[in-house]
Fold this protein.
Amino acid sequence: MLENPRSAYLLWDFEPDFDIANPALALAALSGAEKVIAVSSFATDHLEALADVILPLAPLAESEGTVHSLDGNAIAFEPAGKAAGESRPGWKILRRLGAALGLDEFDQVDLAELRAEMESALSGDAETGAWPEVSNGNSPAGLHRVGELPMFGVDALCRRSDSLQKTVHADSHFVALNPEDAKGLGLEDGGNATVTQGEASVDYPVRVTETVAAGGAWVRSSTCSSRTLGDSFAPIEVKPGGAKN
């Protein structure tokens, strides 16, 4: 969908520059689309620049709905507060879109009716699947990015929590290297480096640690500084330089 761009995209409750493994690829695909419709709880400058229209989505705490646990149990939840402004729960937005497009079975009037149809559709044994096979082919020479997702960067709400972003777990602006790789590149702990993926480059302070395997470059994903880079797990170039931090 991104490597072979589509003419139109529907973005559902995520930020393309944070919530996709390869934000640079996503930006290229979305920028070239004829139509981009976003359903989101947050109207960011980046999203406003990409989307033709943003439909206001009520966040989880202001919605009622159902989630399913890993063992298949349905768990219903109620809103903790009233949806603000013109925002609406996700199921209502989908229902109106489906009805406007003339699609069948988009005529539910309340969530109870929708839940009943879901229970009927989900009854019976769940299909069992298998993990896709992972190639053990030769990796390209050079460093490979390890783009861990920060625990407090997993979604838009966490990223906007001042309290969470002040914890030690939110410390994400650095590139961490194995001592062997750092020495080979002429980098020291506390120094500065420029990391590059594709056409994007970012300056980072350097951390040298044996907790990073040789050949790896630890550059977290879903951060303000890394959102212009490429794939979270892919080749990356690291060289001395960068602004002092």
